[in-house]
Amino acid sequence: MRMSHHDPYTTQRTICSDGPDAAPSRSACVVVIRGEGLGRHVDIDDGSVLIGRLQEADLHIPHNSVSRRHCEIWRDGDAYWVRDLGATNRTRLNDVPLQTPAALFDGDHLTLGDCVVKFLGHGSVETGYHDEIYQLATHDPLTEMYNRRHFIELTEKEIARAIRHQRALAMCIIDVDLFKPVNDRHGHIAGDSVLRQISQLVRMHVRGEDAAARIGGEEFAVLLPECDAGAAYGFAERLREAIEVTEFRLDEQPHRITVSAGIATLTAERGTCSRMMAAADQALYRAKHQGRNRVCLQPD
C-alpha cells in the first residue's frame, strides 16, 4: 500500500540550512557568569587583564570575597594564561586552586571567592550570546541608553579614576518639564516617543568618553569626565536649547517640550556616586523652582 505524504508514521525529509552566518571573529574574553557584576566582561587583547575588587581593575567585581587584585590574565602568542595574585580566596581554575600560572582554554571557569568568570577563546560562538545578555542587563529597553544601575557602577569607577589622577568630573541630571500632562493627555505611547526623541538628542550632544543614562521615568543623567563646572554648564545649555527648539509630534500636532538640568562637580565632599547625584538633584530642584527650562549649577 502506498503511503500518504501526510502519514503520521513517516518521517518527512527536509532541506536544512547551513546555519546562521558566521559571526565576525573577535578577541578572547572573560565574562562574569555568577555573582556580583553578572554579565560584565572584558576582552583580552595584547595587554594583561587585571580582575579584582579594585575600582580600576579591567574587570571590576565589587564583592567582598574578591581581593582587590585577585588574578591576572594575559596573552602569549596564540595562548592565554592566568595567575593568582596572592588573593585571600585563592583563584581556582575549574575548581582546582592555582599554584602556578596555567593555560586557559575555551570554556574554562575561574572561581574568585563567591564569583565565577568564564573564559571564552578567540572566536567562541558563545561570545555573541553573552554580549546580548550584558546589553539587556545594562541598558534601558525604551531608550537603549544605560540604565540606572549601570550608570552608578560607571560613575563609581570614574570617581575613583578622577580622584587618583586629580582630574575634573561633572554630573548632569536632566528632567523633562511637565511630563505627566503629556502622558495624561496623549497617552503613554506618545510619552514614550518623547523620551526616545530626547534620548537621541542627548546622544547627539555627548562625547565618546561621556556616559549617558535614563535613571528614572523622565529623568536622564550624563557623566562628563574631565569637565569642570563651566564646560559642564555649556554642555547642558546646548542640550537644553536643542530640546527647546525641537518639534515633538503628539497626536499629529506639533508640541514644544523643555527640560531642566542640575549640575554637580566632583569635590572632596562628593567622593561617591550617591553624593554627586544628591548634589546634582539639589541643583535640578532649584532649576524647577526657578521656573523650569533652565540649568542650575550646585556650588562647590
Question: Which key phrases capture this entry?
Answer:
alpha+beta, 6 helices, 6-stranded antiparallel beta sheet, 30% helix, 300 residues
Helix content: 25-40%
Q: Write down the secondary-structure element order.
A: EEEEEEEEEEEHHEHHEEHEEEHE
The largest sheet is:
6 strands, antiparallel
Regions with little confidence, pLDDT below 50 for 5+ residues: none
Q: What characteristic shape results from the CA principal axes?
A: globular
Task: Provide the β-strand percentage band.
Answer: 25-35%
Could you tell me the mean pLDDT?
Answer: 90
Give the helix/strand class. alpha+beta
Widest beta sheet: strand line-up: 2-1-11-10-7-8
Furnish the topology, listing elements before pairings:
Layout: E1 28-34, E2 41-44, E3 49-52, E4 59-60, E5 71-76, E6 79-84, E7 92-93, E8 96-97, E9 102-104, E10 109-112, E11 115-120, H1 127-138, H2 148-165, E12 169-176, H3 179-186, H4 188-205, E13 211-214, E14 219-225, H5 229-244, E15 248-250, E16 253-255, E17 259-265, H6 273-289, E18 295-297
Parallel strand pairs: 3-4, 17-18
Antiparallel strand pairs: 1-2, 1-11, 3-5, 5-6, 6-9, 7-8, 7-10, 10-11, 12-14, 12-17, 13-14, 15-16
Helix pairs in contact: 3-4, 4-5
Describe this structure in words.
The protein is of the alpha+beta class and 300 residues long. 30% of the residues lie in helices and 27% in strands. The protein is built from six helices and 18 strands. It has helices at 127-138, 148-165, 179-186, 188-205, 229-244, 273-289, and strands at 28-34, 41-44, 49-52, 59-60, 71-76, 79-84, 92-93, 96-97, 102-104, 109-112, 115-120, 169-176, 211-214, 219-225, 248-250, 253-255, 259-265, 295-297. It has a six-stranded antiparallel beta sheet, with helices on one face. Strands 4-3-5-6-9 form a five-stranded mixed beta sheet, with no helix packed on it. Strand 1 and strand 2 form a beta hairpin. Helix 3 (179-186) crosses helix 4 and helix 4 (188-205) crosses helix 5 (229-244). The longest helix has 18 residues, at 148-165. It is globular. It starts with 27 loop residues before the first strand and ends with a strand. The mean pLDDT is 90.
